[in-house]
Specification:
- The strands form four sheets. A three-stranded mixed sheet has the order 8-1-9.
- It has ten helices and nine strands.
- With 254 residues, it is an alpha+beta fold.
- β2 and β3 form a beta hairpin.
- It has two domains: 205 residues, Alpha-Beta Plaits (2-Layer Sandwich); 27 residues, no CATH class.
Length: 254
């Protein structure tokens, strides 16, 4: 078996959602939680040192797919491309096993129509229908910034290295995803400026403001330290409590 896989360059991803929409369109999946590839955005740090991160999450068709063992036959790894596929007949009667399989998957790659235990499930197929026609996966072709690539995993490793994770992303040590990841570059200041002076200016009221008004804030910490719970997308959350939370974290691609 030749294992095929993906390359994902986080520095090129803008969380535009194009891959998600293209996937849904190709497979006629209606708007909703069955997003075979999900687009995420989160920020870290505080002004003036804020970094916005982007990433996609999908089934990476792992070389050691722990989901297959947990699915009780509803999932299998096919031998031509190394894709992890859902058996549609068994999936209809083994919803609970697929829930267990999804819990085992570090990428939560099995998607359900609703929170009902017997809700229909689906997942990324590696676009095996397109591969059989000599075409690339639709998500790869839809990425205008070329953040995704696809091909034999060995070829991708020679070209891009062997990293199977990046900061904030699940570790690939156990499942060995058929994917290579390139982390975005560290934040750097393109236009250097005096941030201390900027904060001091920000703190002051306009000269036209009434003289009895207090400053905008009393201390630098009030402008630069963010209280816990104030930000929503301040970390990458892949595993969701329910369908509503999944939709909330991936709002930008539906």
């Amino acid at each position: 078996m030749v294992q095929y896989g993906f390359f994902f360059d986080q520095g090129r991803c803008t969380s535009c959602g194009g891959c998600t929409i293209a996937c849904k369109n190709w497979y006629n999946i209606p708007p909703g939680p069955q997003k075979w590839i999900r687009s995420y955005e989160w920020e870290k740090g505080s002004w003036p040192n804020v970094t916005l991160y982007s990433a996609v999450v999908m089934c990476w068709h792992c070389q050691n797919p722990v989901c297959v063992d947990a699915a009780n036959g509803a999932l299998y790894k096919e031998e031509k491309y190394g894709a992890v596929l859902l058996d549609p007949d068994k999936a209809k009667s083994q919803g609970l096993d697929l829930r267990k399989a999804n819990e085992a998957c570090p990428y939560a790659a099995i998607l359900f129509e609703s929170d009902a235990m017997d809700a229909p499930a689906s997942k990324c197929t590696m676009c095996i229908d397109r591969l059989e026609q000599g075409l690339s996966p639709i998500c790869v072709l839809s990425c205008g910034f070329r953040a995704l690539d696809f091909g034999p995993l060995e070829d991708l490793q020679k070209k891009h290295g062997t990293s199977t994770t990046f900061p904030d992303y699940p570790s690939g040590d156990l499942t060995k995803p058929a994917a290579i990841f390139k982390a975005r570059e560290a934040h750097r200041s393109v236009l250097p400026y005096d941030s201390e002076k900027a904060i001091a200016l920000w703190q002051q009221r306009s000269p036209l403001a009434p003289p009895d008004l207090p400053p905008i804030f009393d201390s630098k910490a009030q402008a630069t330290e963010i209280p816990a719970g104030m930000l929503f997308r301040n970390k990458l959350v892949i595993r969701h409590k329910n369908v509503d939370e999944l939709m909330r974290y991936t709002l930008n691609d539906d």
